[in-house]
Amino acid sequence: MPSTLINSTAPGTAPDLTAFKPGLRLISRESIAPLLQQVEKPGRYTGAEYGIPQRDPAAAAVRVLFVYPDTYELGMSNQGLKILYDQVQRSESYVADRYFLPMPDMATAIRQFALEPWSLDLLLSLDSFDWWALNLASELNFTNILYGLDLAGLPLLRAERRGSEPFIIVGGTAVSNPLPLFDFVDGIFMGDGEDAVLEISAIISEGKSAGLSRAQILDQLGGVEGLVLPHQYAISLAEAGSWPAYTGPLVKKRNYQSRRFAALEHIITPNIDVVQDRVVVEVARGCGQGCRFCHAGFWKRPVRNSEVDELVDQAGKMLKLSGGNSISLHSLSIADYPWLEELVVAMAERYGPDGISLSLPSLRVQMKTIPVLEMTAGIRRSNVTFALEAASEIQRERIRKKSSEQNLHTLVREVYSRGWDLVKVYFMMGLPDPDQNEIDGLIRALNDLGDLAIAAGPRKKVNVTISLFVPKAFTTFQWAEQKPPAYFYEGLKRIKAGVRHPRVSLKGPNADMPWVEGILSRSDHRMGRYLLAAYQAGAHFDSWDDHFNRDLWRSVLETIPPADVSLWTGPGDPHAAMPWESIIQAKGAGSALLQKDHERFAAVTPENMNPPHPRELKDFDFPPELLRPVRIPEHKFETQVFLELQYAKKDTAVYVSHLESVETIRRAARRIRLPMTFSGGFNKHEKLHLFESLPLFFASEAETIYLELYEEIPLRDLAERWNQVLPPGFSIQSLCYVAALPAARLLNEAPRGWRLDFKSAEQARQVFGQLSQAPESFSFEKRERKRKRLKKLKRGQSNMRAVTRSLGVSLGQLQLDQTSVCFTLAAPALGAIAMADLLQHFLLIPSSDWNVKLTITRTNPDSLNADSLAANG
């Protein structure tokens, strides 16, 4: 079974001494194109974003693949991946690339077309890299490691990897207990990886130059501080219900010593919408609060703070690179940053006048929160979020979350009175609770918040998220009992029944998910066999509600001996050492410290607790510097000229939606500091106008946008400068000032020019013949997509509807030019058939053939704007 594989090679297999030298294989864009036509959001898989360094992978001493074991949208929002990618790209000797796991529709297409996955930027096969660096934020992504390996055609078990197959090294907060992954990965990194990624790459580079084998290089990687190598540990197996013993190196968790956390030089800007698309400034690393339930708080110790001036300068550099319009101040406990007010003022004064907003993570319940919020609300109002966690004073004292519910109510009332309509509050269920009254406490706390919302006005609301507690390694509660799913299901049911306020919106997760997460968090190497069984049964993307398969996981967990389940879910003896402590030395989270803190937790009683004192807001809570509102200057709201812009999109840009394309143009405009006029209201943004959208998969020679500028600037060389900061596939074609915005009706009713480019002249002649004989009108069935109409359909009723559109009379200027067919088509607003319907229903060219057998391009129409003014430079 996998759990017995503790050596670097499979039992009975001679060591492979072949020199480690991965080959280099390119995946062609032509082979990928058919897959992109069959999946949702194809822009996830095309790369070609702005900010990718141009490197020759064949000349690189080491090729590193940064793998995020989830989707593109989540991976491109992960700050850890951005930091490590930037570190590698700073070295001219190495090349880094990215890979995000394909969603099931793309995985199916890859297998259907007998292809293999490719790296995002260089389009290399995934075995072309020397090592994979994976960042794991959740134990529920463990099955995604196997999914990624399997799709790439690499062995799932580390003992079966040989020759020049890449080293698989994982890191992140989810691997502080490395034992469940011992069977699958070559290395597990503990702590901050900024220096380690370069050290690992250097050792691999030196090993390749010396002609060493994969196994020999792997042994040398043991010299990297913070890196656990599973093959170095001898394991003494135990009886069911007892911990195994692990004999091997004691690895020290790595802490990055520099305070320049946020200084990124290589920032890739996504072409499509991602989960979090802000400039992230890491204000501090680590947390000194010591909340007993918080794994990150213990694991990220010690606290390291960056300087204010450094952070402000770093933010400016990253804004210029990214074209972003929002800065997020990141820290585990932003309220503990000693110069928070000074930082907020400096950021707001430097970037607020340019329309750059500032957002903060969840806030502590303390009085200085209000002035800080006011200072950040001048441009765009961010969400107001408080993390209270527990619903009673004594419970918060026990978990060392120093927050007063009365002070929370004071802050919520003040926030409502200052114009915010929505407050978000986080609670947690399943924490160690000697009194066993947390459910009643949560019901009372939520109803109290609902009363506050009603008292504050008709539009005020509270969004409450209840997370389910999962005990983690290297925390005070690493010995605590993991509550079973039944407890959470029943508790959430009682809470929903007990909360009587329509102003309170309650959200809670699938209760089976934390149960699986908890077992993965505190199990040992024997969990490997069950992890493998779950993946082979179909488990992956387990952190997604709509992908998590409760029945599958229940059937797998039922095969684990009950004594082992009890061992892995607690409660355990708080005086007993845990197995991961024999492998990892974690500063600030050592066994003696945690045991002592657990004793303090157990000793808290109503008689000896020391909760925070209730307070009201006073004048001195509002320092003068925080009361000076930072606003966008008035002249930036006043439009002086209108700029007509025409841009082209082709190649990989056809996989970017119209709205995302416009945002790409807008980002580039910010990079060149185009003086765009701002809108008013709470959430200010640059004013631009677009009309008919271009469908996904279509290219264009001239898409038109109108921008409002608060200042007229010379147009000479502007297009060239703009193009230099656009991603591949996008280009500015023309710029001119116009006296006024054209009437939307004229633009919407104007004919469109089109060109179909085929692979052969025969295909072009056939389509030309079909269009030459097109009837005046054409009827076809079309899938209903409007929600209102879909809701009216009765059970079993088809969602297809018959439509008739003009065709022959709407076609004009039909021409055949070798392999191309050109024509104009009247606007859909005048009853003409839409281009996509013409292709699919009349010409019978399915979307799967687009960009494979032909390309579809909207061509440059005749100018409709008589008011255009010649650019005068």
Care to describe what's here?
The structure is a single chain. This protein has 873 residues and is α/β, with parallel strands linked by helices. The protein folds into four domains: 61-252, Rossmann fold, CATH 3.40.50; 279-524 and 590-603, TIM Barrel, CATH 3.20.20; 632-741, Pseudouridine synthase I, catalytic domain, N-terminal subdomain (Alpha-Beta Plaits), CATH 3.30.70.580; 750-790 and 798-873, 2-Layer Sandwich (Alpha-Beta Plaits), CATH 3.30.70. The protein has 26 helices and 30 strands. Strands 20, 21, 22, 23, 24, 27, 28, 29 and 30 form a nine-stranded mixed sheet that branches. It has a six-stranded mixed sheet with strand order 2-1-3-4-5-6. Helix 5 links the parallel strand 3 (131-135) and strand 4. It is globular, with a radius of gyration of 30 Å. The relative contact order is 0.09. The model is unreliable at 1-11 and 863-873 (pLDDT under 50).
